[in-house]
Specification:
Length: 476
């Protein structure tokens, strides 16, 4: 080992050599050695790193205002936090997302990076903590137990606009397809069997409106869930080691720094241990992804074939579909969305179990909650963008195929039922099934409805919406 490439740092367990160019310190290094688990580090989630810096900056501002932190130290911490908020030095957040200690390793990773960045701006060497200390200065008036969950909430708030925008854009793309296909008649299906006619436009508008409900819920609940924070509660919510005025100042500063209406939780003891907001938000994500998976299933069915399936729509061809079957193209984008959905649904169970596993005044499973929440948001956002850009916007319809399937379907007899009666309808349906003839062909053969009325019944606008029925011209 080249000793010149390392600096020695000390903690309560002893000394360790830390890479000289690293902004993290000894406690981060111990976490690196201890937790080689997911292979996913804090740096994978920029909003989380930025949120940690925002919390530290708000705390430093409060401590400086209360004359607990010198101007020199406050200036150094501010410069360091601002760099992190701007996206710099995120590679120094190296701790695994899964870790013991209820997030202490994450908190100390932030404290050490900020301290060493601050020391650098003060003209000091990394590790000269007598001038700016990770615990005494950067972590002043804080505990992991209030700084860490506050940062998770702020990080999720920072990502909500991207999530909302991806969902809104997907809804608009589906609605646009609904408008494009508004006059294209096809057969609707229930239980994978022919049902009654509809338009392809109605099908796509239903997809859009189905997701629009979720967008409204996200916009309504996101801020309510994550703006109340327990910052200032320190270890268990009692505020030990913090000035009585600290919480009010720090929370106000965090709101200003983050750009979100952060408020102090009503009961800090309760807020320190309760993970209910994460359970609810995770449930909303699960609901959204369940819907997206169902829509993806429908797209795969509607485009199936192309020669031997439903083949009412064409999905954009994105890649060859087989290493052995020439000409085969698979619905790879909806398939990927299905898999994202399954992953997020699994994340929801992890979040639920981790929230339940809290004991007494703290939930030590918060690192798993943080990882699954940030990963779910990232996957959902990327998945919706992928589905819109690489699939929905390029969908085309096979109009002739849609009409062929509708006109040859037994299900079209349902539209004629009010005019020829249930008994005639059942008989015609059975005859069509046994003979292979079309329903309209048999109706005409038996002269059950005159051509003028039949043409009127079969108008698209009459097939797909409620309509008053006049039977006097039907030949019952």
């Amino acid at each position: 080992m080249n000793i010149d490439a390392f600096r020695t740092e000390h903690d309560l367990l002893g000394d360790l050599p830390v890479p000289r160019n690293a902004y993290y310190g000894i406690q981060t290094l111990r976490a690196l050695d201890n937790f080689k688990l997911s292979g996913v580090s804090l740096s994978e989630y920029p909003n989380f790193v930025s949120a940690l810096a925002m919390v530290k900056l708000a705390a430093a501002d409060a401590n400086h205002e209360l004359n607990c932190l010198s101007t020199e130290k406050h200036t150094a911490i501010t410069k360091a936090c601002r760099q992190l908020i701007e996206g710099k030095h995120h590679d120094q957040f190296v701790v695994d997302m899964i870790q013991g200690g209820a997030g202490t390793s994450t908190n100390m990773n932030a404290n050490e990076v900020i301290a060493n960045l601050g020391l650098e701006s003060m003209g000091k060497d990394k590790g000269e903590y007598q001038f700016l200390h990770p615990n005494n200065d950067v972590n002043m008036a804080q505990s992991t137990n209030d700084a860490y969950p506050t940062a998770i909430r702020v990080g999720l708030l920072l990502g909500q606009n991207d999530l909302h925008l991806s969902l809104e854009n997907l809804i608009q793309a589906l609605a646009a397809k609904g408008d494009e296909f508004s006059s294209l008649l096809k057969m609707g299906r229930t239980q994978l069997q022919d049902a009654v006619p509809m338009t392809l436009g109605q099908e796509f508008h239903a997809f859009a409106n189905n997701l629009r409900e979720d967008l409204a819920l996200f916009k309504k609940l996101d801020s309510d869930l994550f703006t109340p924070v327990n910052l200032g509660g320190t270890a268990i919510g009692t505020g030990i080691n913090a000035d009585p005025r600290y919480q009010g100042i720090a929370v106000k500063r965090l709101a200003a720094i983050s750009g979100h209406p952060i408020t102090a939780a009503t009961d800090l003891v309760e807020a320190t241990s309760d993970m209910g907001s994460f359970v609810l938000f995770s449930g909303l994500l699960k609901r959204l992804m369940t819907k997206l998976s169902k829509i993806s299933n429908d797209l795969r069915l509607l485009s199936s074939g192309p020669r031997t399936g439903i083949n009412e729509i064409n999905l954009p061809a994105r890649q060859p579909g087989s290493s052995i079957m020439p000409g085969k193209v698979n619905p790879v984008i909806p398939e990927a969305v299905n898999q994202i959905a399954f992953e997020i649904i699994g994340h929801d169970l992890s979040v639920t179990m981790a929230a339940e596993a809290g004991q007494l005044q703290l939930n030590v499973m918060e690192p798993l909650i943080a990882w699954k929440m940030f990963d779910s948001v990232r996957l959902a956002t990327r998945g919706m963008d992928m589905l819109r850009e690489l699939c929905i916007e390029g969908i085309t319809a096979n109009e002739a195929r849609c009409r062929e399937l509708m006109e040859n379907s037994i299900g079209i007899v349902t539209a004629l039922n009010p005019y020829i009666g249930y008994e005639n309808s059942s008989r015609i349906a059975k005859k069509a099934l046994t003979t292979g003839c079309g329903v309209l062909e048999l109706i005409r053969e038996e002269n059950l409805i005159d051509e003028e009325l039949l043409a009127d019944i079969l108008k698209p606008e009459h097939m797909i919406a409620p309509r008053s029925v006049t039977k006097k011209t039907a030949k019952l």
